[in-house]
Design a protein that fits this description.
Layout lengths: L3 E5 L3 E3 L17 E5 H29 L9 H18 L6
Antiparallel strand pairs: 1-2, 1-3
Helix pairs in contact: 1-2
Length: 98
């Protein structure tokens, strides 16, 4: 494991004994890729960043959801609410049926 490991997109890191001669995962038969130690640390760092961004997007969603039922009394309030909605849509992306 010190030099690297085989990686399957379905099973994660797999033992070298579970990799076929044609470089596929012995469990799910998906092609595997060799990750050396540097690639593994870069992958772990990227996964950490993704998890942090997902948590932030969830927080954005919660903040916008908390504004449900707010009825703006002035034009600036309505404008701010519209901008909040646009930022929310940009953050969470399109939903099913849109």
């Amino acid at each position: 494991m010190s030099n690297g490991d085989w990686y399957c997109k379905n099973c994660g890191y797999v033992d070298g004994r579970n990799v076929t001669f044609s470089e596929t995962c012995g469990t799910c038969r998906v092609p595997v890729v060799w990750h050396d130690a540097n690639e593994k640390s870069a992958l772990a760092e990227a996964n950490e960043t993704i998890a942090q961004l997902q948590a932030r997007l969830h927080e954005v969603s919660e903040i916008y959801t908390g504004s449900d039922g707010f009825i703006p009394a002035t034009a600036p309030e309505a404008y701010c609410l519209r901008i909040m909605y646009q930022m929310y849509r940009a953050a969470v992306g399109p939903q099913e049926g849109e």
